[in-house]
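anyone seen this seq b4? input:
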Amino acid sequence: MLVAIVALGIALSVAAVHFTGGSKTSTLTSAGQAQSRFAEDFPDEMATMVRLTADARTAFLDLGRGRIGIVHSIGGCFLTRIVTPRDVTALTAGDANSVSFQLADCTWKGGRFHFASATDAQGLLNALEPHRSNSTGEAA
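predicted toks r here
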């Protein structure tokens, strides 16, 4: 009897969270919304370009100086990050419109991102690739 009561209580709690919007996934409606959401956490940063994924759950913002801002939907909220190529531990291009990467961040590992445009996917891939210096020696 006690097991049935506990199971019913858990089921009712899960249903209450779901029906009150707790399982809703937020999306970005525009590049402007992505910039605005990013500015809430990083007010001093200015994006020169915004790339939205095809599912509108993630935006990548070019911040200059080799940095990319990220706005990513997690449930009903948005996670924001600034990353550089040094933060990327794995980077691969899927098809022409997809990019996958992993970050050295223990709170968010990255993922696979599909774009409507191959140009956006290639732009993100280029921005996250490590830039190697042509010089191997040190200045004397």
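The first helix runs from residue 2 to 19. The CA atoms of residues 87 and 106 lie 11 Å apart. kinda curious what u guys think
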